[in-house]
Amino acid sequence: MPNSFGKIFQITTWGESHGSAVGVVIDGCPPRLPLTVADLQADLDRRRPGQSDITTPRKEADKVEILAGVFEGLTTGAPLSFLVHNSDQRSEAYDEMREKFRPSHADYTYQAKYGHRDHRGGGRSSARETIGRVIAGAVAKKILSLAGGVEIRAYVTQIHDLTAPVMSNFPSLAEVEASPVRCPHAATAVQMVARIKQARSEGDSVGGIIECRARQVPVGLGEPVFDRLEADLAKAMLSLPATKGFEIGSGFAGAQLKGSAHNDAFVPRGAGIGTATNRSGGVQGGISNGEEIVFRVAFKPTATILQSQKTVDLQGVATDLHARGRHDPCVVPRAVVIVEAMTALVLVDHWMRQHAQTQTFKF
Amino acid sequence: MPNSFGKIFQITTWGESHGSAVGVVIDGCPPRLPLTVADLQADLDRRRPGQSDITTPRKEADKVEILAGVFEGLTTGAPLSFLVHNSDQRSEAYDEMREKFRPSHADYTYQAKYGHRDHRGGGRSSARETIGRVIAGAVAKKILSLAGGVEIRAYVTQIHDLTAPVMSNFPSLAEVEASPVRCPHAATAVQMVARIKQARSEGDSVGGIIECRARQVPVGLGEPVFDRLEADLAKAMLSLPATKGFEIGSGFAGAQLKGSAHNDAFVPRGAGIGTATNRSGGVQGGISNGEEIVFRVAFKPTATILQSQKTVDLQGVATDLHARGRHDPCVVPRAVVIVEAMTALVLVDHWMRQHAQTQTFKF
Amino acid sequence: MPNSFGKIFQITTWGESHGSAVGVVIDGCPPRLPLTVADLQADLDRRRPGQSDITTPRKEADKVEILAGVFEGLTTGAPLSFLVHNSDQRSEAYDEMREKFRPSHADYTYQAKYGHRDHRGGGRSSARETIGRVIAGAVAKKILSLAGGVEIRAYVTQIHDLTAPVMSNFPSLAEVEASPVRCPHAATAVQMVARIKQARSEGDSVGGIIECRARQVPVGLGEPVFDRLEADLAKAMLSLPATKGFEIGSGFAGAQLKGSAHNDAFVPRGAGIGTATNRSGGVQGGISNGEEIVFRVAFKPTATILQSQKTVDLQGVATDLHARGRHDPCVVPRAVVIVEAMTALVLVDHWMRQHAQTQTFKF
Amino acid sequence: MPNSFGKIFQITTWGESHGSAVGVVIDGCPPRLPLTVADLQADLDRRRPGQSDITTPRKEADKVEILAGVFEGLTTGAPLSFLVHNSDQRSEAYDEMREKFRPSHADYTYQAKYGHRDHRGGGRSSARETIGRVIAGAVAKKILSLAGGVEIRAYVTQIHDLTAPVMSNFPSLAEVEASPVRCPHAATAVQMVARIKQARSEGDSVGGIIECRARQVPVGLGEPVFDRLEADLAKAMLSLPATKGFEIGSGFAGAQLKGSAHNDAFVPRGAGIGTATNRSGGVQGGISNGEEIVFRVAFKPTATILQSQKTVDLQGVATDLHARGRHDPCVVPRAVVIVEAMTALVLVDHWMRQHAQTQTFKF
């Protein structure tokens, strides 16, 4: 179960950085969803290494194969199985890591927990694991789009100490993709790209913040108590490599407001109900209220840097590490599509759960 | 399942604010754990309303009964069932809420999702639901303590815009409990109490931040990929009423550091391995690394305020709401023990999972 | 999780034979279901000890309390919590069992697994655990009845070597309840009652077989592969105390037929499709086909007998056991309502799962 | 989740009969297990079509690839991913099934549940799905063997109305594999082979019964209440295609015994405890007692027969079906290894669960 996510729309990812392939199985997909490779490849290309001059130069085509679950262009209700071959595996760059633990990586904890590890490219802890998430997320996004025009948009708002102005509008995909750094504020994006390049030239790395919004989400998704929508979103985001924080709506800043300034007044809206403000971030009592869902995720700087670092080896002896290998000086731009994917997975799963409990039987 | 938490050490809470009782069932508890009511009552008393002059005056003894699962003072491995009677229920104070949705409460979303709701005191969305969590958390804390001296300590670091200095030491329970606001920095605590009282006198409310640490946590808890320790902690925290954010280790501030400044160098420590700094917050690759686990949780100001607010009624018509009833002007001090409880539940569950996968069979 | 059943409509039972109470929590119940104590008590009375002169004389009123989840007569979608107090506990009758393992009971395996046990009346292994199942089953039966007139009827077809003729019709509840042995074939029922009384007079016990049918079950419940409807029914039945076998449709006898004689030809039926015969037992490929679901469950004779038996004690020394205490010379008549309950729980859960996957989104 | 089995050692199978491949993912496998393709291929060969003259002539090499989870010959604790390519797909033989429902197959229920289906070779309902189970079962068998010499042996005891004498000894693998029908009683096996060939020559099919035993199973596996060992075994067996019944120990025949004849007296055995007889089938109170686990599974005759049959088409119109295609006149001999696989999966999962609850913490 540690490699599965979701309760009804459940995905299981598998594969290592330097194995023959990575993949994902989706169990519980609704039947009759039109699905082709083209539905998946666009998002994979947004995640792909080597897509721009601010990402790792590892060359991977990341072409997806559909192995099962689709018949004559439609899902059948059976498990969907997807596979992406790994092609550009230069394991020798990792020989040093067989014996030495890279700081702030998973090397030591994997070794301690499992007694040995696939050290090549981080093995299972590699970001290549997220390929499966992006594929499954693309399926989920298609469901959401067809089901009711639900749109999910993630974008970068901060790189290192460069922060974009608050976005009052829901950015278009084109605005996000206009820059390789995926910040829709053009002027800031230019600075961010330069900052990332500078970090790389120093053999260093930088982190940042991604904001994500979802609109047209129906009222009623999420459960009271443990499986609150924001709780499952938080779990989804903190399950991503390199994440250090999550906040929804007013977030940490909301802790500094008084209730009279924080509460979202209800107002009539069309035939329904809306809120005058959205400090709740689209979720109240764990359940979506129809407003935009808005949250932010903090990413630490990439742990792999090309500077000499202090560490210890398998025998616990102090040593120095001189990392080689190809890496992203900043994972945040490529993580945008992964944040969207995880958001879509949470929403589809909760939509199905909500339907099961409240719509199966009518009294 | 929405009311259950944990995969092996699994709890299920039940009960509403103005029902006859609230309770919790623990399934999967290890056998032969010594357990008495006294083990549970101390933490319940830290959660209890009316415990100080900065909490709600609702009077509840919150005395717990053990209904099942203990024989001759030891757990049997069968489900533990606990019950706390509700005594001080003044439902009439909530008559207005039957027809009007309280801003930033769960009233509207529950109504929309389920088609009707128990409006009295928020029904299931009441903080009384957390009684079950505190009971289960006390069981988990006892397990952790007996198993290896694991200690969990949560405390308040911020109320409204008042922030305590960074705590370099692990505070003692006595330091935390020295003030009703549960901030171990005495001078700040005094100010915080005053701020909360001031908010109440204005019919207003304030939020804040809780920091939580766990020490003596063994290396190896948590899973790669989805069930990372920090992901399950994030879910646990965002499942608490009124929470808006979670961050671990360096958190959101870490996004502003470069990799060279953020990485935690490994160093020999005794017979094992430690890190020179702890920006990872005790978790690397989703797995505990033996350092202190450190995270922070943001709480919004209490949604119930005694000022007139704009809202709509069941028919969607704009109206004003004049809340009555007893409430906490700030939930943060009482939430300290709940944060500890959820942390303990996550740790025990992951400890059992880690043991199952890596210790059942040896090759 | 060992004490939970169901994936969406999930129940958790708790309590021991000689504890203060037994109970059940239902998580995932649809909202707005009308529910009162009266809906539950009828089935509890069919399970109750002392209901006739062929059951144990233990006196228990088995009056159920609804602790949570119902507001103004309707379920709210929150967990339902039910409790039944134990009243007639004569623990001293079990003093011998503290030291000696009763043959074919759970005494030894509980002791070995957990390191100690509540020996009084079998503790958690007591049939009193099934009270929670019957309560939850009554809720599930009400849902099924309101949802589409689904009817479930279990009845006794065999006691010891006395076998009722094949029932071609779906028996009415009155026919089943006409005899305390719950065999709707009156002449056989009389013999069965006599056989049970004879066994009791000998200090012995007898087993038997229960057949269960469900009609008006919609097409499409059950999943391919692991969660086939018959697989979950089999699990449900083998989870009952004293069961030794399960067969659906043609069952073990079907293994002796050729395919040409076993296959159920499809035939037009009204606007839909039916089968000319029903050797499939209402399930094909793991999924209900709209025909009657028909299965049988084998129960062993009650393990508690009032004859001297060979056994060993806690120290592993051979000894004799002279059981006292009150017991059923045959558990089968009281198990009828429990079989119905478990069937209802499986059907409701699968109905909700089927709805979630195939009805939430339409493409 | 419908395509997943197990709670800690969890497998997910995927793939259709005429898709490009079938496969399985194992999540939760213990680390450091030595594992190569050779460990898996032997069991796959026992399941393979075309292995003898009493099976389907479909030609499939069924060579397994390990895609993930093994590093330098040892499992890493990461998900294991396995794939087997489908090679001999003659879909045209199934053209008639696109429009007509084969009696006693899954065609109609899949169509009704999902709104369309992959009709080629039964799609997901094909027995090719069991390839994934056999692979995972081989991994589980290796774990059990290394862990404590646990042996699982299934064999055929009945084909049509031919029944082998009761086996008092645990048959060797060689005895089982001596005949293509996998009945270890040589004289009966000869008759069974002839009976299967006769059925095929008539365009007909036959069913049968498999018995399965497991020895050296430690005391304590299985849970009280819902996840009893026999309940999970029953579910595992009824999840296999073509199964109609399950019985453990005395089974249905046990219903005809009196308690005094049925109870298994405890006796001292070496330093421990055994039972003089084994009508319990190795499980008491849902938990293994150290005796041999013994159960039987009933299989119906293969639904595909080469005789003309009455059925209806997609429009509900009555028609005749003249099946073509390659099929097994009896699935029972090839199912032997699948029964072993599912048994192994249940035992490994429960072993890990038992360890988690009772061995993680010691008080």
Describe the structure.
4 copies of one chain form a homotetramer. The longest helix of chain A has 28 residues, at 332-359. Chain A has helices spanning 37-47, 95-99, 107-114, 130-148, 173-177, 186-201, 229-238, 251-254, 259-262, 332-359, and strands at 4-5, 10-15, 21-27, 64-68, 70-71, 74-75, 80-85, 151-159, 162-163, 208-215, 243-248, 266-269, 272-275, 283-284, 287-288, 293-299, 308-312, 318-322. In chain A, α1 (37-47) crosses α4 and α1 (37-47) crosses α10. Chain A is of the alpha+beta class and 363 residues long. The first copy, chain A, has 10 helices and 18 strands. Chain A has one domain: Chorismate synthase AroC (Chorismate synthase, AroC fold, 4-Layer Sandwich), CATH 3.60.150. Helix content of chain A is 30%, strand content 23%. The first copy, chain A, is globular. Chain A has a 5-stranded antiparallel β-sheet, with helices on one face. In chain A, β12 and β13 form a beta hairpin. Chains C and D meet through β1, α3, α7, β11 and α8 of C and β1, α3, α7, β11 and α8 of D.
Number of helices of chain A: 10
Radius of gyration of chain A: 21 Å
| Helicity level of chain A | 25-40%
Number of strands of chain A: 18
Structural class, judged by helices and strands of chain A?
Answer: alpha+beta
Tell me the CATH superfamily of chain A.
Chorismate synthase AroC
The dominant shape of chain A is globular
Widest sheet, order of strands of chain A? 1-2-3-7-4
Q: Report the β-strand fraction of chain A as a percent range.
A: 15-25%
Oligomer: homotetramer
Largest interface: C-D, 111 and 111 residues
Mean pLDDT of chain A: 95
CATH architecture of chain A: 4-Layer Sandwich
